[in-house]
Amino acid sequence: MPPTAKSTTGNYFEDFRVGMVIRHATPRTVTLGDASVYQACYGNRFAVQSSDAMACSIGYPRAPLDDMLVFHVVFGKTVPDLSLNAIANLGYADVRFLEPVYPGDTLSATTDIIGLRENSNKESGVVYVRSTGHNQRGEAVLTFARWVMVRKRDQAAIVAEAVVPALPSHVAAAAICKAVPPIDIRAYDRTLAGSSFVWGDYQVGERIDHIDGMTIEEAEHQLATRLYQNTAKVHFNQHTEGQGRFKRRLVYGGVVISLARALSFNGLANAFHVAAINAGRHAAPAFAGDTVYAWSEVLEREALPGRSDIGALRLRTVATKNVNCSSFPSPSEPASPTEGVILDLDYWVAMPR
Amino acid sequence: MPPTAKSTTGNYFEDFRVGMVIRHATPRTVTLGDASVYQACYGNRFAVQSSDAMACSIGYPRAPLDDMLVFHVVFGKTVPDLSLNAIANLGYADVRFLEPVYPGDTLSATTDIIGLRENSNKESGVVYVRSTGHNQRGEAVLTFARWVMVRKRDQAAIVAEAVVPALPSHVAAAAICKAVPPIDIRAYDRTLAGSSFVWGDYQVGERIDHIDGMTIEEAEHQLATRLYQNTAKVHFNQHTEGQGRFKRRLVYGGVVISLARALSFNGLANAFHVAAINAGRHAAPAFAGDTVYAWSEVLEREALPGRSDIGALRLRTVATKNVNCSSFPSPSEPASPTEGVILDLDYWVAMPR
Amino acid sequence: MPPTAKSTTGNYFEDFRVGMVIRHATPRTVTLGDASVYQACYGNRFAVQSSDAMACSIGYPRAPLDDMLVFHVVFGKTVPDLSLNAIANLGYADVRFLEPVYPGDTLSATTDIIGLRENSNKESGVVYVRSTGHNQRGEAVLTFARWVMVRKRDQAAIVAEAVVPALPSHVAAAAICKAVPPIDIRAYDRTLAGSSFVWGDYQVGERIDHIDGMTIEEAEHQLATRLYQNTAKVHFNQHTEGQGRFKRRLVYGGVVISLARALSFNGLANAFHVAAINAGRHAAPAFAGDTVYAWSEVLEREALPGRSDIGALRLRTVATKNVNCSSFPSPSEPASPTEGVILDLDYWVAMPR
User: Fold this and answer.
1) For an engineered disulfide with B106, which of A53, A275, A338, C281 has Cβ 3.0 to 4.6 Å away?
2) Does domain B175-353 have CATH number 3.30.230.80?
3) Looking at the DSSP assignment, which residues form a beta bridge with residue A277?
4) Which chain C residues touch A9 with a CB distance below 8 Å?
5) What ipTM was estimated for this complex?
């Protein structure tokens, strides 16, 4: 038997089939400790996730875990099976948070392969997946689609005809916020939450500079990414990455998303829940030493069927590196790293009405 | 509306009025996870905070959280409202720990503006505040005064006549240690605690070199400061600070205090509770790469009214950078960074009798 | 009294006597928070420690803490008394994990001095110890022997005749796995655990390249080592170490062991418990910036008396720095740092049958 028969270098493009279902290792009990490490990595200040007392006062049984922590933990499980041989994460769609996750819940993940399309160069292809995170009661807590460009092991391998799934351009407002219990809006203390501005105060087209900047250290992004059990080597191995295209480790894109979300508190303090992500694009890589800034635009403001407690804002949040956002920079097409834009995220948040 | 109308750059000197009361965001449930991150950042070894078994054996219901962690969390809440535009934190006074804080407690903070004095250059002024941290039952757990030099937004803004509050030079011994339950002193295991020396063994005037040194990394002080939800940009933004006076991020002064406290275990292992801080001065800034040392002098030794279990020591702890404390260096007046002194702290600790 | 009479620079060779028993400070309640910081430092993926649901499904009352976290916490307690003046940690033997440790347990440690042998240069000697960690119920959870070369304070000090204890070359398979409750092997989900290969699938002599590499940052090894309350100054003080032999801080050897263990998941995913360590040698130091890789060889495969649920594999795991393990490099004798081998560990793991 070959020496490495029991270890793995991950799946290649030709290993996937449309209709395959992958149950991922490793189940993970997410805890108060994870919340603290997450807090230390990003400096979040959203009150509902920060305070049991605040969460209980409005109708949660206790403070739920940060939505993006849940996303990263579920996403991390999929990496060893899906994207160890990825060339690029091309996109996300239809990301929906379905149930609150509390400290002590155990998360596991499964993935359906929903599409495959070989690239014309026969060296790689795009794998389309639908991944779902479940809690210990088998309830789906998060579902999302993503598509990834994955290397082929063998350029000559014959692959099936292309299947490209239809994915929604954005999540419908009617489908979101199922993870938010009925909120006692009279008990919601805006001063403690950090802002007097609620759902009705935001206007479509309004732009918000989140002002603050945060510099990423090598140890910080590694600690965060390991917390999620994400094993993508580009984030951890300077010995190989130092010889690669960028000469250094890449910061996991999820770290940039979490930083942008934390920075967005300054201007969106009452956006206590990320309800769905419509689309996300990492316009350029981030590295240790980069300082991340962010700004947001209100794309839509939607009431939610049957709910008078909360409403939804569809936001576009753009993160930059090493340039502040006072001029609201947008990514060019194709993205040019020189302008400093690293993330363009389209998502829904819940806010008290 | 201007683009940044929903985000904030913080209050300026002319925004404050004597008598104003500010309720700060964000309430924070402090947890076992926070204790672990704090442990990883500083390496504390005080037994009462480290061990539920030790704490229970002497009369606590469980291990209380580290006093300085509580201080930093409460202090952190005040930063977005008080000191985003601070030029310097000038001092602390009358810092008193009033109730033990346990994992699971939720902390919030309020501040009274108790004094204001414009500087003669009209560009800034000193804001005097009294901040108080409360738990979820509304009990005050910590109160402290501080004064901060804050920029004016508009040099021409007219401000009220100066009010400078009277603050005590130090906290009276009779007022401290309310946060310590009656201690079963026969159960207090000095060997487990790390030293045979208790209250009666320390002499006024005695000096203790804490010997050990600890080098600060950029990621470490950022992780700690974000854990406290402290948003002061000088600690986090290399993009702007790199163009500033020091060309680099400043380490939050509270990190130096916590390091000095952790180092002081070697010589003060039974000083299990910081009861009050009389005065604190950051004599010079600390930066990543600096190695922190500390020494202490016993200023007073006081019995506590009605208590035969514990006594109080008033200590002066001096921290240095990149010079060890075998010669007990003191800060000069005015402080000269070249001598290496970065902190001069006057405080009370509780120790078994 | 001399200024430093209350602080300590640790014991020197002549301070030890065979038969001495040392009760170490500081007792430590290990928590969910510690598990999260440990997770963030190493990226472990073993399912039993990661998931309460997985652990409960097979017979644990909840997820136990990682065995090596327990080892490091117990080891850390011994450092201030045993090895502050160590020149080198020479070896470990007969390391046995005796009881599972759960979040909330409080660990303390005692050490018996079991041997002493002065070096011929009279400047130092070897101290042989047996250290044992206990939980809050007084149960031994871990026991291990180690021997350390310790400086003499005074070269002229007279010391007793040499006593060198007999230590086993390895732990007998019959003595291990007492810390593993009866496992419901039908409930053990190999897919969730990350591999279909169980005890019977491994062959003596088989070699496994664990493939992945992990770069160590200064902040990461300091955070981990402080989490264990390990105070050895070589890991923390750049001000002194910068003037020393290596010009920089040494990474605690336990960090390398934990990284190698975490990397070994890729190839040994079902090796859910470290049952015993037979021998360990740090062949060369590791520093921040080094990238760690590992490979393993199966030395023995043993059934366990009276157990049909699990079996034991005796493994040799070799860790390298800045060279991958595709060629299975071994340490030379004497160790030469140029070949990149930093750790050679001989240990037993438990695996489902």
Assistant:
1) A53
2) no
3) A95, A347
4) 211
5) 0.96
